[in-house]
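Q: What does the predicted 3D structure of SIMPL domain-containing protein look like?
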Amino acid sequence: MYYNQTLPPAPMMNSHTLMNNRPTIEVTGEGTVSAAPDKAVVELGVIMENLSLSAAQKKNAEAMAKVIDALLKLSIPQENIQTFDYRIDMEYNYEEGKQTFRGYKVTHLLQVTINKIDQTGIVIDTAVNNGANSVSNIQFTVAHPEAYYNQALALAVKNGERKALTIASTLGVTLNKFPGKVEEMSPSAVPSPYQAKLFAQAAATPIQPGELKIAASVRSQYFYY
């Protein structure tokens, strides 16, 4: 007597399943490239306080107009001078638990892009000498950061490969030459900030841009046998 028995189908195995079942080594590779900055972005402006709001606004506007005119005379292009913060705040004094109105504070800050980085100190001094009383931030950048980032990215891939080879050698296994997966991780910010609070000075303000460190990192997965 014969019995006709239907067997369950064999599980489907695709290439993704096969790859997931293979032993892997996962590493993070990092790369850093140094670059000389060729552009500066300076945040500067005028802060005025007065009991009268209209007076504070008027004085701020007059001072800011003088600052902008001085920057334009330094051949800073109009499009490189941009308002990024304008606000009005009410100021109070606090004494013995009591709040006393002190007046209004009008803040007008500009973001100035300097294409000739050696003029950074001159730009700051010129703005301060013409009425700016706040220099809150200086960022040094490069005009084409993607070229340096790509170099750092290549170094990160090589760094990950060396790490994987070291692990494989320690385990006594053989590493596949090419990774099964490479994932770019979030790049680090390029600008290098220089914090400053500057006011009018007799001598030129010395600004040292130094070098930028542009970093990249990847996560790589290698198969081994």
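A (community wiki): The structure tokens above were generated from the sequence. The chain has two domains: 23-35+145-189+216-223, 39-141. The longest strand covers residues 98-114.
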